[in-house]
Design brief:
Elements: H1 6-21, E1 33-37, H2 46-59, E2 64-68, H3 74-78, H4 90-95, E3 105-106, E4 113-116, H5 125-129, H6 138-151, E5 160-164, H7 171-179, E6 182-188, H8 191-195, H9 197-210, E7 216-225, H10 230-242, E8 247-253, H11 256-260, H12 268-271, H13 276-290, H14 305-313
Length: 314
Amino acid sequence: MDDDTPLAAQLAMDARRRIELHGRRFARPPQTRIMTVANQKGGVGKTTTTVNVAAGLAMAGLNVLVIDNDPQGNASTALGVEHRSGTPSVYEVLVEGAPMSESVQQCPDIPTLWCVPATIDLSGAEIELVSLVSRETRLRRALDVYLQEREASPEGRIDYVLVDCPPSLGLLTVNAFVTGREVLIPIQCEYYALEGLSQLLKTIDMIKAHLNPTLHVSTILLTMYDGRTNLAQQVAQEVRTHFPEQTLRTTVPRSVRISEAPSHGQTVMTYDPGSTGALAYLEAAREVTERDPALRGAPSQTTTATNEQQGETR
């Protein structure tokens, strides 16, 4: 088997990533970066991206907080935190005005990763929020207070906050958009995922105009990528053509290991850190840290040759 076969090329790429990323510490941002992970289409990898990018950042020495704002609670499951009904969660923060510090739990596998879980109670929050004062800004105000508390605590400042959203554009997602300063959009490499992107961008523009002027799309990550299919390559090319500055060079392949990890209450970063999927998410996390948010997602000057090779070999 020569180096030109897809399997050999993939093995060589994984070996390079292991060497480059093993034990590497990522640079801390000058201030906390708050990223909302959103896409109103379901099944594109929002929660998977949220927990694995967060785990990758935390394993590289950064303090990371995940806010599970999805009633399904899948991010809470993947991070191994308690989220049975009655557990202090994001519901109490949004609806009852409870301090976020009362809901934060530490991830059992990664000491520098914390999570505000979601319980089944959150499924009714959309209706309950309608009659509340400042319904769109409740999560942001609670997070701002918590971040100030962390600044003064022995645990230290939070470097990254990732907010996981439900696959809809209701009040929970609006709260997440108002909370975030940046938007990370996972896009599945299929046609339907592209079709809904324009509606999502219109929603973001509306939030920016009326509720959160600093909001911007800083990062787009291509997920479930299979370079053996023409469709995946076409979708990737289309996204890179329209969003050249925001789209990460790294693509996340379809991976059984990524799918298996939540059933063990883990992210793929701890379930199988040497797998292709884990290495892809770790490299994506590194790319996120190398981008200056002030440049609104402008990529670093690193060549894109690696990613092109990745697309050809998968």
